[in-house]
């Protein structure tokens, strides 16, 4: 998300005061005012849409969206309801997350038990990239480590759920390996970068 080569439109960045991987993933409610402040600073600087570099920021979607007058897409998890409607009758969605232990039900936004049964969650916790991101400051992104961890997680999930038909990346670092995962899995892969492109196309 922070790589200028990711998008064909300019991006401006604000840091959420006090936010680190560990407390955003864990869900620290005291961060919400800082998320709102960062969003307002972005709008003041000319932002026409707002996103986040962590899918777990969906916890602050409502607060940020009501505080600014531009489209807000804090997480790729916002795509889940639409993706469920695209599934074949017996298909499932694999949600690939940075840390499945903290990808709780409230983040999915799915209340219908029949729809929830179509979602399987897998995380890369314990992998090299997971450990690297927990460091302060985090080292440069290791793309090879992300691909290894994500591919292994998908392989494990498909072994348990052969009817997986779609993959959704929660983590904002995963889009860098989306082309490789599409080739390996032969499945559609959705992520925050794609959601941002769609959002920007709607206002450009």
Short structural summary:
Helix content is 41%, strand content 11%. The protein is of the alpha/beta class.
What does this structure look like?
- The chain is an alpha/beta fold and about 200 residues long.
- About 40% of the residues lie in helices and about 10% in strands.
- The protein folds into 2 domains: about 20-75 and about 195-204, no CATH class; about 75-190, 3-Layer(aba) Sandwich (Rossmann fold), CATH 3.40.50.1860.
- It has 10 helices and 6 strands.
- Helix 8 runs parallel beside helix 9 (about 180-185).
- The longest helix is centred in the C-terminal third of the chain and has 18 residues, at about 145-160.
What are the defining features of this structure?
204 residues; alpha/beta; Rossmann fold; four-stranded parallel sheet; two-stranded parallel sheet; 41% helix; 11% strand; globular
Can you lay out the helices and strands and say which pair or pack?
Elements: H1 21-26, H2 32-44, E1 50-51, H3 61-65, E2 72-73, H4 80-86, E3 92-97, H5 105-108, H6 113-116, E4 119-123, H7 128-133, H8 143-160, E5 164-169, H9 178-185, E6 189-190, H10 192-203
Parallel strand pairs: 1-2, 3-4, 3-5, 5-6
Helix pairs in contact: 8-9
């Amino acid at each position: 998300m922070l790589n200028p080569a990711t998008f064909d439109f300019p991006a401006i960045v604000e840091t959420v005061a006090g936010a680190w991987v560990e407390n955003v993933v864990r869900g620290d409610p005291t961060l919400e005012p800082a998320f709102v402040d960062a969003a307002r600073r972005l709008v003041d600087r000319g932002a026409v849409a707002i996103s986040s570099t962590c899918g777990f920021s969906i916890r602050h979607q409502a607060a940020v969206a009501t505080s600014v007058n531009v489209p807000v897409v804090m997480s790729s998890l916002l795509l889940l309801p639409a993706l469920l409607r695209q599934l074949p009758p017996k298909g499932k969605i694999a949600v690939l997350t940075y840390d499945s232990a903290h990808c709780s039900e409230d983040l999915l936004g799915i209340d219908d038990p029949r729809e929830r049964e179509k979602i399987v969650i897998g995380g890369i916790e314990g992998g090299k990239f997971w450990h690297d991101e927990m460091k302060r400051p985090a080292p440069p992104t290791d793309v090879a480590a992300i691909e290894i961890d994500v591919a292994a997680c998908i392989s494990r999930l498909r072994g348990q759920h052969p009817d997986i038909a779609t993959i959704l990346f929660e983590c904002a670092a995963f889009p860098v390996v989306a082309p490789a995962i599409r080739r390996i899995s032969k499945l559609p892969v959705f992520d925050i970068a794609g959601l941002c492109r769609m959002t920007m196309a709607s206002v450009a």
